[in-house]
């Protein structure tokens, strides 16, 4: 006869398998069964949290992650997961603290540094957000989302040239990223170079001709350029 611990492990493994198949309700049942058999099974609480998060049951996911930590599962992954769900729930300082814990356990966790950028920015700590996002792309030079958020964070502290470089990196890694074209064009526009802004949006439309955002921005930039030219002519 199997011990409760072994049976709990089997239930947990079943839950992981069901989760990977998108069968979230059944996965939750399997994890709860594992916990019923072994109430101190920290890993089951962690996986339960992951599944609840995927069901958008964020408060319950937070509880499950915290229980896993309380029971001794203290590693980078669980603190990363907790940090993400805390940010989703609007608990920004708590989110940052959890994510800092994540990188304490794994200093090379680029995802934790990337996730740290959003809550730091959202409560106005833009320089720390820039520092975290720089660390993310240093660890993972192909982290497109981190480069994009780095562009936004640099703009927030007035470092538009650094912001432009971040968006260029996004486009180097993903030429289909219409948001990067739009924000890079805004940088050029801020530099007073509306022609380069227009060229940037046009380059994006060659790759993403269906992008209504790029189409709109191109129209607006051209309107402003025409208006500026008319104003110059009227002053002659």
Architecture overview:
- The structure is a single chain.
- The protein is an all-alpha fold and 236 residues long.
- The chain has a domain at 175-236.
- 80% of the residues lie in helices and 0% in strands.
- It contains 13 helices and no strands.
- The protein has helices at 4-20, 24-37, 42-54, 58-70, 76-88, 92-105, 110-122, 126-139, 144-156, 160-173, 178-190, 194-207, 212-234.
- Helix 6 (92-105) runs antiparallel to helix 7.
- It starts with a helix and ends with a helix.
- The model has no long low-confidence stretch (mean pLDDT 95).
Name the overall outline.
elongated
Q: What's the mean pLDDT score?
A: 95
Fraction of residues in H or I helices: over 70%
Based on secondary structure, the structural category is mainly alpha
Reading the helices and strands in chain order gives HHHHHHHHHHHHH
Please report the distance between the alpha carbons of the first and last residues.
Answer: 96 Å
Content of β-strand: under 5%
Low-pLDDT residue intervals, each spanning 5 or more residues: none
Rg, Å, rounded: 23 Å
Q: What characterizes the major β-sheet?
A: none
How large is the count of helical segments? Answer: 13
Number of strands: 0
Features:
236 residues, mainly alpha, 13 helices, 80% helix
Topology:
Layout: H1 4-20, H2 24-37, H3 42-54, H4 58-70, H5 76-88, H6 92-105, H7 110-122, H8 126-139, H9 144-156, H10 160-173, H11 178-190, H12 194-207, H13 212-234
Helix pairs in contact: 1-2, 1-3, 2-3, 3-4, 4-5, 5-6, 5-7, 6-7, 7-8, 7-9, 8-9, 9-10, 9-11, 10-11, 11-12, 12-13
């Amino acid at each position: 006869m199997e011990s409760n611990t072994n049976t709990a492990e089997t239930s947990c493994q079943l839950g992981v398998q069901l989760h990977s198949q998108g069968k979230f309700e059944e996965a939750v049942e399997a994890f709860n069964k594992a916990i019923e058999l072994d109430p101190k099974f920290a890993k089951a609480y962690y996986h339960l949290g992951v599944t609840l998060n995927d069901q958008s049951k964020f408060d319950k996911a937070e509880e499950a992650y915290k229980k896993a930590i309380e029971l001794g599962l203290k590693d980078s992954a669980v603190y990363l997961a907790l940090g993400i769900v805390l940010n989703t729930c609007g608990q920004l300082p708590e989110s940052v603290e959890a994510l800092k814990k994540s990188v304490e356990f794994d200093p090379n966790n680029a995802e934790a540094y990337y996730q740290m950028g959003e809550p730091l920015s959202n409560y106005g700590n833009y320089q720390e957000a820039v520092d975290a996002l720089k660390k993310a792309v240093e660890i993972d030079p192909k982290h497109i989302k981190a480069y994009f958020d780095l562009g936004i964070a640099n703009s927030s502290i007035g470092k538009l040239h650094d912001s432009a470089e971040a968006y260029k990196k996004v486009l180097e890694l993903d030429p289909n990223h219409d948001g990067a074209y739009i924000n890079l064009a805004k940088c050029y526009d801020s530099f007073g170079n509306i022609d380069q802004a227009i060229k940037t949006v046009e380059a994006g439309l060659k790759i993403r001709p269906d992008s209504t955002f790029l189409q709109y921005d191109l129209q607006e930039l051209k309107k402003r350029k025409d208006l500026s030219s008319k104003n110059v002519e009227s002053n002659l």
